[in-house]
Each structure stands twice: as C-alpha cells, then as structure tokens.
Amino acid sequence: MDAHDLVKFLGKTDDSPEIVKLLADFGVKKKLRVEPDMRDLPVTLKPAGLSLVFERVETKSSRLKLVEAQIYSDAEKGFTTFPGQLPSGLTFADSRAEAIKKLGKPYDTQKDFRLDTWISKTSSLTVKFAKGNGSIQMLHLGLPPDE
After folding, report:
1. What whole-number percentage of the chain has pLDDT above 90?
2. N or C: which end of the chain has fewer CB within 10 A?
3. How much is the pTM?
4. What is the pLDDT of residues 47-63, one digit of tens each?
5. Distances from the Cα of 146 to the Cα of 24, 61, 110, 124, angstroms
6. Could you count the other beta carbons within 10 Å of the beta carbon of residue 12?
7. HSE-up of 72 (CA within 13 Å, CB side)?
8. pLDDT band at 117 (very low <50, low <70, confident <90, very high)
C-alpha cells in the first residue's frame, strides 16, 4: 500500500466495507470504540509505520470516520519505516528544501515544530522534519480544511 492509496479512505466511516477491509488487512478485526470523553481514536500500527486517526461523525455518535493517516519513518521511536511510496515523489531521506522543490511553497509553516503543510483539493499533507539531519520523520495525510 502506498500513501496515495490511503487518501481514498479519508472521510470514510468505520462501518464502510473499504475501512473494514483496510483494518482487517492490518489485523484489526474488532469494532472501533471511542471512550465517551474522547473525540478521536488513533489506531496505531507501528510495524506498518502507520497510525490511522478516526473521529466521531457527530458529537455523541459511535460511528467514526477516518480523518488522518500518519506515516512514519523509523526516526519516530517505536515505528518501522512505512514501506510504501510517499506522495509526490517524497522520500524519508528528503530535506525540507527537497520537499519544497517537489511540492512548492508550503501553505503553512510552523518552524518551532519543524512542520510544513500543503493543501490540495483532495487532502492536506503535513510533513515533520527530524532534528539534526532534517530529513522527513513523519507525514500527516488528512482531509482538506473546510472552506
């Protein structure tokens, strides 16, 4: 599975056949449940270098929708590097300058947190760069912001 494959799952609910199969492919067979006082539920898949974040469809609803896929390199403690292709030709070895060359000027930058964000019609992409060598540490693929 590549990062672009994950984009098509964004916004789908946890009871949709696509999400049920996606989770089953990663060994998650139980129905997802969010604690009453929690807004979202991360499904962490460290051996796959991935975390899938689900949010409630409505405030009191038990139905969830996939709102974010977090893609990790082994620079993130406890994670194995995501084995699939990253979006737009990015690699985990890329520096911030290389990412900007491939993606263009970021929509938003948070230098204190080493984050750059790009927005498209179908998704948002936030890249976190590692301390030290500045290579890509993780990516957040999410739904684009509401207009």
Report:
1. 62
2. C
3. 0.88
4. 999 999 999 888 777 88
5. 30, 21, 20, 11
6. 17
7. 16
8. very high
